[in-house]
Amino acid sequence: MGLRAYNSNATTGTINGLIRASYPGRLTTPSVNLQNGPVVQGTPARMTTLIGRALGAESEALKDLVLYTGPDQGIAIQNLYYNVLIANAQEVKGDKSLDMAKKHFPATFGGHELIVGWNALPGRVDGFCPNTWYLGEMLPLQLYDFGGGVTVAPVPDTVNGGYLTSSIFYYVAALNLVNSNFRAACYVFNAAPGLI
User: Fold this and answer.
1) Separation between Cα atoms, residue 62 and residue 174, nearest integer Å
2) Given the DSSP bridges, would you call strands 108-109 and 112-116 parallel, antiparallel or unpaired?
């Protein structure tokens, strides 16, 4: 499970064994449907407003919010700054054209850290509070028990049959990402891609 499993406004189904319908409003995340409209300068303010309504104006999530998006929305956010760059470049003198494009995506958007991930879902900007996430441990890291307390076994010889002269052991664990506060997040979906 990951970010999109928790950043959901679904009211049916289950999450971590909990039935969403049994906890109305507590297992859903506020969202903004842009209906194929672009992200704009006010988009982060819409997101924090929804979090503030859900948790109150003093919530730590408003300060700690991190935005995660894909390159399509990274480009759209970057394009919001180009008019400012052009206006600032008017004061530069010389005979050569300036490079108006910046090398990297912006580090922040609306005062919140912006992370552009190449595997993020297109058309989406996820806001989350890292302080509400932790690693849930269902089975602690331990040596695999082959039976009877034996944790080391000979390696089978798959070519000639029998066993090789080496031994093998395995470590096992059962871990999952867990979000302790679904309302300390917000996501934007159906956002128009930036000009690519």
Assistant:
1) 32
2) antiparallel
Yes or no: say if 6 and 179 are a contact pair by the CB < 8 Å rule: yes
pLDDT for residue 88: 60
Domain ranges of the chain: 3-129+181-189, 135-177
The CA distance from 182 to 54, in Å, is 10
Q: Are strands 14-15 and 153-156 parallel, antiparallel or unpaired?
A: unpaired
Q: What is the mean pLDDT of the chain?
A: 88
The reported pTM is 0.78
What local confidence, expressed as pLDDT, does residue 124 receive?
A: 95
pLDDT band (50, 70, 90) for residue 85: low
End-to-end CA distance of the chain: 30
Written as six digits, the tokens of 137 are: 């441990």
- Kindly provide the b/e burial profile for residues 133-142, where b requires at least 16 CB atoms within 10 angstroms of the residue's own CB: beeeeeeeee
Q: Give yes or no for residue 59 having a pLDDT over 80.
A: yes
């992370």: which residue's tokens? 115
Separation CA 187–CA 69 (nearest Å): 10
On whether the CB atoms of residues 65 and 50 are closer than 8 A, the answer is no
Q: Which of 40, 39, 56 is nearest to 48 (CA)?
A: 56
CA-closest candidate to residue 17, choices 187, 186, 185, 176:
176
Count of H-run helices and E-run strands, the chain:
5, 12
Helix (H) or strand (E) holding 139: strand 133-143
